[in-house]
Design goal:
The complex is a heterodimer of chains A (297) and B (104). Chain A contains 12 helices and 7 strands. Chain A is of the alpha/beta class and 297 residues long. The N and C termini of chain B lie far apart (29 Å). With 104 residues, chain B is of the alpha+beta class. Classes of the chains: A alpha/beta (297), B alpha+beta (104).
């Protein structure tokens, strides 16, 4: 293939937005010159970022009006501090009022910014509430996960509260990060330095095979744009409901019953019915999608 | 963290309407925000850096930038996470080019 690709994984949060949205349509809310760096980081004698590591604004995706949030994983691991969180919550509240076609949430975060302690924790819980309120108002919130920090901790939960998740093979999604698990439960439980294992347990291919993500996307900004546009075209936001919640709960209980004893994605994939599970990490995106579509549901 | 303030004489830059930002506050990297400044013949630069004790090197790198570029009439704010002098020079040139090219 000679089509030029622009890696989503390698791009900054700003470049991702520029490539995702219709050309020239992006308008930033609270741009760097008008935003305030984190006072908490300053009080800890650490340099902040003008936009506090998140970019919010409006634009168009395949002609449809959308609001966007893009986290910068290179700044403090995309972690959520007070101002960072307030920008996200404000944008989601704007979505409730403005009713755009969707909110695109480009998640690239390890979760709470520990430097900001309770302010960061509160920010995460406010984001969770705001995502659900946005969906309840009939506006879908689409999570895009394909950055180096993935979606972990509180942002892993936020990702699962969104209407759907688009993920690349490079993307990761989980609650506790690999290093956290190893620190708490020991290297026998989980070896965080075994990158292949980390991806077999938290990576995009595993999440897609498990049905946690709506689509597996190439690590390419244009592919994310196309997948987001396609998802938007075929989707009606039903809003969070008790029935949907109960169905998910049952599904998760079944998952625990079926797979809790396994130690590795390889075992889970075999149990799912994947032939040659050891070949999965080397498969390209299209081959893996073909396998997933051929699995018994 | 160390906060450094400089002002250099520099040839006037073409006036731009929108501020420009380039770079990210990541390890070995920095972000530079260029906004309109007060005096057409000088460039005011403020630096917040995680690495202490490199004021002389900042002074040298920034002075070379102000002398070799038309950066007068701008205010440049930098958040740095340990970028090397070469990276700082490249980013400064990029930020000024973005600023004069109308931002992104």
């Amino acid at each position: 293939m000679s089509i030029p690709r622009h890696s989503y994984f390698e791009a900054t949060a700003r470049r991702r937005l520029a490539g995702l949205l219709d050309a020239g349509s992006f308008r930033e809310i609270l741009p760097p010159a008008e935003s305030t760096p984190s006072p908490h980081l300053a009080s800890l004698d650490l340099p902040g970022a003008f936009d506090d590591g998140v970019i919010v604004g409006s634009g168009r995706l395949a002609g449809k009006p959308v609001l966007v949030i893009s986290q910068e994983g290179q700044f403090m691991g995309g972690a959520v501090g007070e101002i960072h969180g307030a920008k996200i919550v404000g944008l989601l509240r704007r979505a409730v009022a403005e009713k755009p076609a969707a909110v695109l949430f480009l998640i690239d975060s390890g979760g709470v910014r520990l430097h900001e302690a309770n302010a960061g924790l509160i920010a995460i819980s406010e984001i969770m509430r705001a995502v659900l309120a946005t969906r309840a108002a009939g506006v879908p919130v689409l999570a895009l996960v394909g950055g180096s920090c993935g979606a972990f901790g509180g942002m892993g939960i936020v990702a699962k509260l969104c209407s759907a998740i688009l993920i690349s093979e490079e993307g990761r999604l989980a609650l506790s990060g690999p290093e956290v698990i190893e620190t708490v439960a020991g290297v026998e439980e989980f070896d965080a330095k075994d990158r292949a294992l980390v991806w077999r347990v938290t990576g995009g291919k595993h999440r897609y095979l498990m049905g946690d993500c709506a689509a597996l996307v190439e690590d390419d900004i244009a592919s994310f744009a196309a997948a987001a546009g396609a998802w938007l075209a075929g989707q009606q936001e039903a809003g969070p409901s008790l029935a949907a919640l109960r169905a998910t709960q049952t599904q998760l209980e079944n998952r625990v019953a079926a797979y809790a004893a396994y130690r590795d994605g390889l075992q889970v994939w075999a149990a799912l019915g994947v032939q040659n599970p050891e070949s999965v990490p080397l498969l390209d995106r299209d081959s893996l999608v073909a396998i997933k579509e051929g699995l018994p549901t | 963290m160390e906060t450094l303030e400089y002002r250099f004489a520099s040839a006037p830059a073409a006036a731009a309407e929108t501020p420009a930002l380039c770079g990210v506050v990541g390890s070995g990297n920095l972000e530079i925000l260029v906004t309109p400044g007060a005096e057409a013949q000088s460039c005011a630069i403020s630096v917040k850096t995680s690495a202490r004790g490199f004021g002389d090197i900042w002074q040298a790198v920034l002075a070379a930038f102000a002398a070799s570029h038309a950066a007068g009439g701008t205010r440049i704010a930098i958040n740095d996470m340990g970028a090397t002098p070469a990276v700082v020079s490249l980013r400064l040139g990029q930020a000024l080019a973005d600023y004069q090219g109308g931002g992104q």
